[in-house]
Write a structure and sequence with these properties.
alpha+beta; six-stranded mixed beta sheet; four-stranded antiparallel beta sheet; about 20% strand; elongated
Length: about 450
């Protein structure tokens, strides 16, 4: 039987090297074709590696924790009596596993769902695996990430007759702005009524400070000792490389608009109270962008050097934080899906992204990306475009503000700032303004998103 090389395959479109999380076989173990040999950390997820030959795992050349470039020899499968000395001798020395930083994980944790730099850019199509190894049907979860910081547990809130949670108007407004489900908050007012301080206490924020969303708790930050050096993870390396390329090659420009969210806040509150439907503002933004992209195909396009490629389908990437970086799960054909379908899919993709369980086809191929920092009280920011896309939308918090009407009367209202970063090689200023105008029109008339 021929000697079978165990070669590190390209398991994601942007993968240049991989880290051996663990070997599931030991030297001397029998191996059959299709057996899982190792778990590999790529720049996007942890993937199972299958054997492409049968025999005995005679030699492991890169130990668990070690890194290797794509295409390099990391092991040898052969019969017990076959001579593999020349093959082993010709292999490059295995890099030693990086020493763990004292009391810190490999990379600092990031805010949930989005962070202040844009997500790592996905390529249009997943790359094929090298012949010697291929990923299994689904990715395995990564080693356990740091536990998420979430709101402290509270007793169940008191509900009024009919099952509606009792809360003051101000508490309802604050909860709506911060995406906090009232049924998760314990009330301290009369008869268990939820009041302002309950919302602030649940969110773990002092009075006046922006509260964290219940749907998107931030991962726990690592303990950092000043002066220590933190090894760069594969995903952090790719983020640094691709976003630097984007920022310095794509001429970015930015357009910001204020969106009147009064109707969206009222509709979302009605859905949650009357129909028990959990829809976030981000779900409405995804649907609004998807519909607008069908009317503005140049915003749903890519720069390809000597040509501009317009896409026949609308695939919206959602920036989601994982412990050592960002990933953009993709809602495919978002324009053809209902808001409720989008809501369920985003929740599922975000959960599996944080668990490093996404398949390559679930985080590649987006044609437009949305990054949302609103749950952290961020009102406005700019995001970096994911090449080869031509635009990315940065979404701020829904704020309760004083609104001056045409008759000069002042009333409370809800506003949200969104900023479109565009590649000027593809999108011009007037087009960016028109696209944002359509997104604003749809969000200000949210019933149109459901038809």
């Amino acid at each position: 039987m021929a000697v079978s090389k165990v070669v590190l395959a390209k398991l994601s479109p942007t993968m240049e090297e991989g880290t051996i999380v663990k070997w599931t076989k030991k030297e001397g173990d029998p191996v059959k074709q299709g057996d899982v040999l190792a778990e590999i950390e790529t720049d996007k997820a942890n993937m199972e590696m299958e054997a492409q030959g049968s025999g005995v795992l005679r030699k492991i050349l890169v130990p668990a924790g070690g890194k290797a470039p794509v295409g390099s020899l990391i092991g040898v499968i052969a019969e017990p009596n076959e001579d593999i000395s020349k093959m082993v001798a010709s292999a490059a020395p295995a890099p030693a596993p990086a020493p763990a930083a004292a009391s810190a994980p490999a990379a600092p944790a990031q805010p949930q769902q989005q962070q202040q730099q844009a997500p790592p850019p996905p390529a249009a199509q997943p790359a094929a695996a090298a012949p010697a190894l291929q990923p299994a049907a689904a990715a395995r979860p990564a080693a356990a990430p740091p536990p998420a910081i979430g709101p402290r547990p509270v007793p169940a809130p008191a509900a009024a007759e009919g099952g509606r949670v009792k809360a003051s108007p101000l508490a309802r407004s604050m909860a709506a702005q911060r995406n906090i489900p009232l049924d998760a908050v314990a009330g301290s007012g009369p008869n268990g009524r939820i009041i302002k301080r309950d919302i602030e206490s649940w969110a773990g924020a002092p009075t006046g400070a922006p509260a964290r969303s219940s749907a998107a708790p931030a991962p726990a930050g690592p303990t950092i000792t000043p002066g220590q050096e933190i090894p760069v993870s594969n995903i952090r390396r790719v983020i640094a490389k691709r976003l630097a390329e984007s920022m310095f090659t794509a001429p970015h420009f930015y357009v910001t608009v204020d969106v009147d969210m009064d109707a969206a806040v009222a509709l979302r509150d009605q859905l949650q109270r009357g129909e028990d439907v959990k829809v976030t503002y981000n779900d409405l933004v995804v649907k609004a962008c998807a519909k607008a992209l069908t009317r503005f195909p140049m915003v749903n396009a890519s720069w390809a050097g000597d040509k501009i490629v317009t896409h026949g389908e609308v695939h919206v990437g959602i920036a989601v934080t994982i412990p050592d970086g960002l990933i953009t799960p993709v809602v495919r054909n978002a324009d053809r899906k209902s808001v409720l379908d989008i809501s369920r899919e985003v929740k599922d993709l975000a959960t599996r992204a944080r668990e490093r369980k996404l398949k390559p086809e679930e985080f590649t191929g987006s044609t437009f990306t949305i990054s949302n920092l609103g749950m952290f009280g961020v009102t406005e920011f700019t995001a970096i475009i994911n090449p080869p896309e031509s635009a990315i939308l940065a979404v701020g918090a829904v704020q309760r503000v004083a609104v001056v009407d045409e008759d000069d009367s002042v009333r409370p209202g809800h506003r949200m700032k969104v900023t479109l970063s565009s590649d000027h090689r593809v999108v011009d200023g007037a087009m960016a303004a028109q696209f944002l105008g359509e997104v604003r029109r749809l969000l200000e008339n949210p019933v149109s998103l459901f038809v």
